[in-house]
Amino acid sequence: MQTYDDLIFDVGAHIGNDTDFYLRKGYRVVAVEAVPGLVQQCKTRFANEIASGQLILEEVAISDAAEKGEISFFINPEYSEWGTTDKERVKRNTRFGSDQVEKIRVPAIEATELFRRHGVPHYMKVDIEGADRSCLHAVVALDTPPRFFSIESDKLEYDAVCEDLRLLQKAGYRRFAVVQQAGYGFSTINTRTRHGEDLSYQFQPSVSGPFGDDLPSEKWVTLEEAEREYRRVFREYRWFGDNQPRLIRQIGIVLGRLRNAALPGWYDTHARLD
User: Fold this and answer.
1) How far apart (Å, rounded) are the C-alpha atoms in residues 152 and 269?
2) To 5 degrees, how large is the angle CA 262–CA 25–CA 134?
């Protein structure tokens, strides 16, 4: 299967805030989004890039449990980024005080189909609210995985995060980064495009943020060091995380603002081959 160093997969594109960064960096992008309303926003926002072929929109959900090419998808009208195929995520959202759920049927494919259609990308970002691991298993099955990969980390089970790390190691990844996602919105990065041109970019809300060589070199650690870092993260999750009552979570948010660092926030696991 061919690998393309000018290609990124944005799996869980939402309204395209990460896609915008990847396009500005000069990459071709395959953006995966299942919710029709969000897809339409991306079509309007990136009409020129779609017309030029720089962006391809895959209007599907990623799932290993599709029935006749479709799956049930749960939209949260209050928080559009909480759309999910995972019923447990719906229960979590209800605990968070948002029980507005609309169930729809959407087209669905397995993650391996993305690689068959488009090849292997330089970087693959995965944030699909509970279905992330189906993409990880597909990457493990590749002979040559993407050079860079990121996945939203589980917030409830430390062992689940360690399993993700070991699957990434099985896929061939040797360096890992534990990246706090809260706080990227409206921050600015000075970077370069893939063509070597200077780029100053302000991130928008609800983004995955920098990836690959844009992450500080000290962020990249061994698997064992990443596991130790997640032990610290999960201490904060136990104190202020998703399983705590709303008041406790709000106290964590206030304490985080006082120390100018999210408490507990949420994390992505990044991985690199070299």
Assistant:
1) 6
2) 65
Residue 252 lies in a domain: no
Q: Return the percentage of the chain with pLDDT > 70, whole number.
A: 96
Rounded average pLDDT over 236-259: 77
Inter-axis angle of helices 132-140 and 158-171, nearest 10: 30
Q: Answer whether residue 253 is part of any domain.
A: no
- The pLDDT tens digits of the residues spanning 204-218 come to 988 999 999 999 999
Angstrom CA distances, 146 to 36, 107, 176, stand at 28, 25, 14
Q: Looking at the DSSP assignment, which residues form a beta bridge with residue 272?
A: 148, 175
Compute the distance between CA of residue 36 and CA of residue 130 in angstroms, rounded to an integer.
19
Half-sphere exposure of 41 (CA within 13 A, CB side): 14
- Residue 37 belongs to domain with CATH number: 3.40.50
114 within domain boundaries: yes
What are the residues whose beta carbons fall under 8 Å from the beta carbon of 210, sequence distance 6 or more?
Answer: 189, 191
Spatial contact of 135 and 30, defined as CB atoms under 8 Å apart: no
pLDDT of 112-162, one tens digit each? Answer: 999 999 999 999 999 997 789 999 999 999 999 999 999 999 988 999 999
User: Going by C-beta distance under 8 Å and a sequence separation of 6 or more, which residues neighbour residue 267?
Assistant: 152, 153, 155, 178, 179, 180, 181, 230, 233
Are 184 and 207 within 8 A, CB to CB? yes
How many domains is the chain built from? 1
Distance CA 209, CA 226 (A): 19
Q: Which domain holds residue 100?
A: 7-234+266-272
List beta partners, residue 58.
32
For the record, the structure tokens of 194 come out as 């893939």
